[in-house]
Design brief:
Elements lengths: L1 H12 L7 H26 L4 E5 L31 H10 L2 E6 L5 H12 L4 E5 L5 H10 L3 E5 L17 E7 H6 L10 H10 L8 E5 L5 H8 L4 H7 L7 H5 L2 H9 L4 H15 L6 E2 H8 L12 H9 L9 E4 L2 E4 L1 H8 L7 H10 L2 H13 L3 H13 L3 H13 L3 H16 L6 H15 L9 H19 L4 H16 L3 H19 L4 H18 L1 H16 L6 H17 L3 H19 L4 H16 L5 H16 L4 H4 L10
Parallel strand pairs: 2-5, 2-6, 3-4, 4-5
Antiparallel strand pairs: 1-3, 7-9, 8-9
Helix pairs in contact: 1-2, 3-4, 7-19, 12-13, 12-14, 12-15, 13-16, 16-18, 17-18, 17-19, 18-19, 19-20, 19-21, 20-21, 21-22, 22-23, 23-24, 23-25, 24-25, 25-26, 26-27, 27-28, 27-29, 28-29, 29-30
Protein name: Novel STAND NTPase 3 domain-containing protein
InterPro entries: nSTAND3, P-loop_NTPase, TPR-like_helical_dom_sf
Organism: Saccharothrix variisporea
């Protein structure tokens, strides 16, 4: 239709059709209407499923793009916007272009800030909003075709499982919750296993494109509160009364009220529905749950002594907005999603997810979602289910995803089984004619790590060493000797060399990588820190316990001086520092260091994770050096916990009485 309309316009414009003057005027009006209608038809016809496109100035419903509801008012659905202190920063970032990311706690006001800045400074832009991770590539293609467009990604964590995309030449405005952002930060890279690094790289490929990151505090500043007091709105006035305990935005969104309603619920089935939805998100499932899946999940949360009410009324209770604002369970499309405020509140305290929940999720989810659930299951000691997840992905020929979950299995304590799975995954992948060389090398890297000297005394470094040499050679041929991937592969080679008692060569290799990485990437780069850690490990082996303790202490102090000290890296440094101090018979200092390191390990990986159990053994060894009377009972409890978490035949369990001295 559109080409025909344009042809008619051309004919009229060039007077090849002879019409009376009044007809010409009428024809222009008709053509204008027809042209407008035709363009609308063409746009609708070309708009992919799962992408919403609208002019920014026409976006009149903030709730539709993710802003939390507020209590109803005769004046407006939402309170007037109170400019936040970071508003000028968002403005400057949008005007500069690129990828703008606003980070903050749930209900801190991230989405409202982003929405208002977009409306004020980009009114003529086209807003392109993908509704699912799968729609992201289409959204970016559409944005590139527009002269002025902004891609809207509220709750960015929902898009982290998307296939790699090209962000160049597109203005992006996104929000993400603080703990979701920090979980995949590059600050944690130095001590990730290769499989975990692979997962983190895939998940945060989006973060690598961020050009402007703006942090928004949940609690309002004095200036923000002062601006709010000048606004005539009862909802804001009521929220200001509680600013000593809660943020203004979270009170307006009814976050604290919803949390209390859930905890005090009289409807056992309704509370179970909310609990199931919250745990699903904590287990790594970020997509809306279908009603059928939610119905299956909630059964694990209904107390056996209760006679729950009907499903329909319970679901209605869970989705009922409090004060017409947010609800505990938010309908999204054809499914339901737990209110993120409840998720964050639950994650802030110790929690346990029922085994039935893990089983159901691992049997139902697929692809990137299954990878995330598999990793989270590994942190919660559900190792049989982690292996099931890896097998499901392998059977679906999703080799990279399967290797990531296999790495999670090894990281949690089943290194031998993980290595067997990775070998099978690599063999299966190499039979594929479309296997990408980078993917193949990633699989080989994971296999080297799991096969070899992952932890001292665990693994088979002799078998891993030729694989590690092959990995370095292939990375060098593909990318050159100074590429990051090549240098990381050389660190893996150093670990296998040291594991086969070639400790001086291991130290020399690690030292060379430190020098290269400092020159190429800087002192604070994750590769440099990883290489320094490896130097500490093999300096201790070559020069003795005291030298190793001094080097680990220096490294830990350096990390602590950074603006955002990486807790994972710092924990690993302290664990190894404590072990070296024990080896040097400096037991009192070792106990001090390891007491804190065990606490940090438990917070990072959970009480039943292999790393935490090994940290506890290091702590017991230090306590034994000062003749602490609690050692026998602590040792007995550790054996019980190792047997329960890892099994009676696991090396950590079998060697629990001998103590550990482990680089990690």
């Amino acid at each position: 239709m559109l080409p025909g309309v344009l042809a008619l316009v051309s004919n009229i414009a060039t007077n090849t059709i002879s019409l009376p003057d009044e007809w010409v005027a009428a024809s222009w009006v008709a053509v204008g209407l027809l042209l407008t209608a035709s363009i609308v038809v063409e746009v609708r016809r070309s708009q992919p499923t799962g992408v919403r496109i609208a002019r920014v100035r026409d976006l009149n419903d903030p709730v539709a793009v993710g802003v939390h509801r507020a209590a109803p008012s005769s004046r407006s659905p939402l309170p007037p916007f109170v400019p936040r202190d970071r508003f000028p920063d968002v403005r400057d970032a949008l005007q500069a272009g690129g990828f703008v990311l606003i980070v903050g706690d749930s209900t801190a006001g991230k989405t409202r800030l982003a929405y208002e800045a977009m409306r004020q400074y980009l009114p003529r832009h086209t807003c392109v909003r993908p509704l699912t991770p799968e729609a992201l590539p289409d959204a970016l293609r559409i944005a590139r075709r527009k002269r002025h467009a902004v891609v809207w990604l509220d709750d960015l964590e929902r898009y982290l499982g998307s296939p790699p995309v090209d962000w160049d030449g597109v203005l992006v405005l996104a929000t993400i919750r603080t703990h979701e952002r920090d979980d995949l930060s590059t600050r944690h890279d130095p001590q990730r296993s290769p499989g975990d690094r692979q997962r983190a790289r895939a998940g945060r490929a989006v973060f690598d494109a961020v050009t402007h990151e703006i942090r928004l505090d949940r609690m309002w500043s004095d200036d923000e509160v002062a601006r709010a007091r000048t606004v005539d709105d009862d909802r804001i006035a009521q929220a200001l009364a509680g600013t000593s305990r809660h943020g203004v935005a979270e009170t307006i969104a009814a976050g604290p009220q919803l949390l209390q309603s859930w905890r005090d619920a009289r409807d056992a089935r309704g509370a179970a529905i909310v609990s199931a939805a919250v745990d699903a998100r904590l287990a790594g499932h970020h997509r809306p749950l279908s009603e059928d899946l939610l119905r299956e999940l909630h059964l694990a949360y209904v107390p056996e002594t209760e006679r729950p009410g009907p499903w329909g009324s319970a679901l209605e209770w869970a989705t009922q907005p409090v004060q017409a604002t947010s609800s505990m369970l938010e309908p999204v499309g054809s499914g339901y999603l737990a209110f993120d405020y409840l998720v964050d509140a639950t994650a802030a305290e110790p929690f346990t997810i029922p085994t039935a929940t893990w089983q159901i999720l691992i049997d139902h989810v697929e692809g990137a979602d299954l990878v995330e659930v598999g990793w989270q299951a590994s942190f919660h000691g559900q190792l049989d289910l982690v292996e099931r997840a890896a097998r499901r992905l392998l059977d679906a020929d999703e080799h990279t995803a399967a290797s990531s979950v296999a790495a999670a299995l090894g990281d949690a304590g089943r290194s031998e089984r993980a290595a067997e799975l990775l070998e099978e995954i690599l063999d299966r992948a190499e039979q594929s004619s479309s296997l990408d060389s980078v993917v193949r090398l990633g699989l080989l890297e994971a296999l080297v790590w799991e096969t070899g000297e992952k932890y001292a005394g665990l693994g088979d470094p002799a078998s891993a060493l030729p694989l590690a040499r092959r990995l370095v050679a292939e990375h060098t041929a593909l990318s050159g000797p100074t590429h990051r991937a090549t240098l990381f592969a050389r660190l893996g080679l150093a670990r296998q060399l040291g594991g086969t008692d070639e400790v001086e060569e291991a130290l020399a290799t690690a030292t060379d990588v430190v020098e290269q990485s400092r020159r190429l990437f800087g002192e604070d780069d994750s590769l440099t820190l990883s290489a320094r850690f490896e130097v500490c490990v093999w300096s201790r082996a070559v020069h003795g316990e005291k030298a190793g303790a001094e080097q680990f202490a220096d490294l830990a102090r350096y990390v602590e001086t950074q603006d955002k000290a990486d807790p994972v890296f710092l924990t690993q440094c302290r664990l190894n520092l404590g072990a070296a101090l024990t080896g040097a018979a400096e037991f009192t200092d070792a106990v001090t260091v390891l007491t804190d390191a065990v606490r940090m390990s438990s917070e990072l990986w959970g009480n039943d994770h292999q790393k935490t159990l090994m940290a506890r053994q290091l702590h017991i060894d230090a306590l034994a050096g000062i003749d602490d009377p609690s050692v026998p009972e602590l040792q007995r409890q550790l054996e019980i916990d190792c047997t329960r978490a890892l099994g009676p035949d696991h090396p950590v369990t079998l060697e629990a009485m001998r103590g550990w001295d482990l680089p990690t």
